[in-house]
Structure prediction request, 246 residues.
Amino acid sequence: MVDLVFGDLTPTDVAMAIATGFIVSAVLTAAYFLSGSGMPKWRPRKLVHISMGTVVGLTLVGYSNLSGPSFAAGIFMFILFYSWAHKSQLIEELLRAGSRDGESSQNTFMAGFMAMISFGTVFLVFFSRPEIFVASILAVAWGDAAGEVLGRPYGGKLFKKLYRNKSVEGSIGVMLFTIIAVLTALIVYSPGTCILCVFPQILIVAFCATLAEFLSVKWTDNFFIPMITALAMWLLIFPGVPLFVF
Prediction:
């Protein structure tokens, strides 16, 4: 787990930071051009959603200290503002490209901002269990995204009932990919955990995250899914683990 101090960068830190900065920049660039090509806006938006969440979830805890993610953020900001200097409307256009149908760029900004608040809270509260933090991010990146990726083309075909434009098929996708997210986090960051022993609890965790997504309004799923996932994992899989242990 990354130490909460600013220290020297290791070669691994530098390599991950450079890769992260350029991957995120490349994903945003691709989403920007895909949005401008006439493609339905939800597709480039989910490309950013899945890619950035996966990169953050799988790299942040791998740095040796906070200098690593700060360096990665610096690389990304340099590329972003260098591009903005050559096109003053770039940031506004990126926000519009990532907006849901009928929502403003301000809503897109709030979705990202509140997701960062949620991620930061989970990171600090469950610092001693990196698998909880990783699972909570991947639950949004993979689980929440699956709800739309599967729900858009298939929603309402098998089960006709919709709730606030959310389908049973989409919710099934959320649950399945949240299970995969939790399993990935446990396998990578908690090798001592018996997966089969806690699989019933994993199903409950995924159900709780799915319920949070189902009941969320607009961008609030980005805030509530990580919180609910982390809390459910703490209560059901790692009960008794102290909080705020640094």
About this structure: The chain has two domains: 1-98, 128-246.
